[in-house]
Amino acid sequence: MHTIDFIVFYAYLAIVLLVGLAMYRKQHTEKDFFLAGRSLGWFPLGISIMITMLTAFNFAAFPTEIFKHGCYILIALPIFIVVYFPISKIFIPFFQKQKKASAYAFLEDVFDLKTRCLASILFMLWRLVWMAVALFASARILSAVTGYHLWLLILICGIITVAYTSFGGLRAVIWTDVAQFFILLGGIIIALTLVSLTTDGGFIGIFTNALEHNVFRPVVPYDPEFFSFDPTIRTTFWSGAIGTMVAFLARYGADQMVIQRYRAAKSLSEARKSFIFNIFCVLAVLIMLVIFGLAMHSYAVHTGIMGQYSKPLKYMAVLIRSLPYGAAGLLAAALLAATMSSIDSGVNACTMSWTKDFYHRFFNKEEFSKKHHIRYSVYFSVVIGILIIAFAELFILVFGKHQSIFMIVNKMINGFGSPLLVLIVFGMFKKRLKANSVFYGVLAGAIFSVCTAFFVEDLALHYYAVVNLLASIAMCYILEFVLPNKKTFHQKPD
């Protein structure tokens, strides 16, 4: 990149850091730090939900999947509409009515304390790994673009994100998410515009090239295996639809990060509007990322570099570096924005889980305490940030350059959410299962999820989440018959 690109890149980092730190003065209680005073409207919340879930995974995975494998990944887009109904009609009203800040506090009323703690631990482990992979993926892309060492980019991005999150709380997270969304959107639009200007036939030429080179498969040309029930085929209609639906239900219905945003809304109506707005935003961005993948292919064909690299990520880096001065820096900033918006949300949510489910539950039971207690939340945020950076650096050794980001996400991250989703659904509907059956069943399901991620190789990518969900449910019901017949569940009196 040129000097101008680096100026744009570092200016973005400085602005985000200053905006986040400026919010520190508005943190008076833990309610402000974790829920932004429950005063936010649908617009910032909707954008925050969207960009929190849209990490460098998607920024890299969607275009590179399109580039290498075709349009199979598009099966995920309609699932956003499908999950709208259970999330909007069941999950959001349920969590909006909860009085406690923690998303998992109700599990103590329905089952017992250890089940609540298990949910919180599962969430923190799930999102710690998720944030570390997000940071690793983003740094890997930026390393190819900027030439900086991978470990250095992880360190810079991690430290800046943790700094403004630790001091600014959820309000800083939300408003920096809004700024990062427009940077992300602007970067993609500018990149698509510039690529189309250098492509034969302009914007239409991008689609013409895709049609000529079979990038629109499985539709054109038609892939007869797309509707196969074979669970070993990489992506089919069934694995894509069912697996994505399970992953989305876990993401929007069991994740403290998203539930925290429902709770931060002024009202139930605002929370529902924020979720609808999130769907519109995420569909718009993902469609543009799909087109960006087509543009990558068109650029590689028209510049004659097709076949020179084995990894699609290299083609993305070459395209970004070819953009005019300033545009490459903006797109690099957009890549970073996609990751920072996820890490800041994860740090704040993990801090909230630790504070509410462990610190206040076992050590200091004073809820929404005064200013000096926010200091402990800042400390917890810093510790979580250090863990994320350490895990991301470790991933350099574990994964290096050998596995695709898309495979990492579907095998590890999406699969880990399934046991937590089982726990939440059983608690919401007060399934008459013994507390120990649920606790040990979900724990066994979580261990099973780890084993499938590392040892099962031939399963369709999207099916990891489904298999882990079914295994967790089965474990709970098996233990219901095996364990001694004690009290099913208890509920505290009103």
Task: Give structural notes.
This protein has 494 residues and is mainly alpha-helical. It has one domain: Sodium/glucose cotransporter. 75% of the residues lie in helices and 0% in strands. It is built from 18 helices and no strands. The longest helix has 48 residues. It is globular. The termini are far apart. The relative contact order is 0.19.
Name a few traits of the molecule.
mainly alpha; 494 residues; globular; 18 helices
Strand proportion, as a percent range, falls in under 5%
Largest sheet: none
Give average pLDDT, whole number: 81
SSE run: HHHHHHHHHHHHHHHHHH
Question: How many discrete domains?
Answer: 1
**Share in helix:** over 70%
Rg on CA atoms, Å: 22 Å
Concise description?
With 494 residues, the protein is an all-alpha fold. The chain has a single domain (3-482), classed as Sodium/glucose cotransporter (Up-down Bundle).
What layout of secondary structure does this protein have?
Layout: H1 3-22, H2 30-35, H3 42-53, H4 56-69, H5 79-97, H6 106-110, H7 113-146, H8 150-197, H9 202-212, H10 237-253, H11 256-264, H12 268-302, H13 312-322, H14 327-363, H15 371-398, H16 405-428, H17 435-455, H18 463-482
Helix pairs in contact: 1-8, 1-14, 3-8, 3-11, 3-12, 3-14, 4-12, 5-10, 5-12, 7-8, 7-13, 7-14, 7-15, 7-16, 7-17, 8-9, 8-12, 8-14, 8-15, 9-12, 10-16, 10-18, 11-12, 14-15, 16-17, 16-18, 17-18
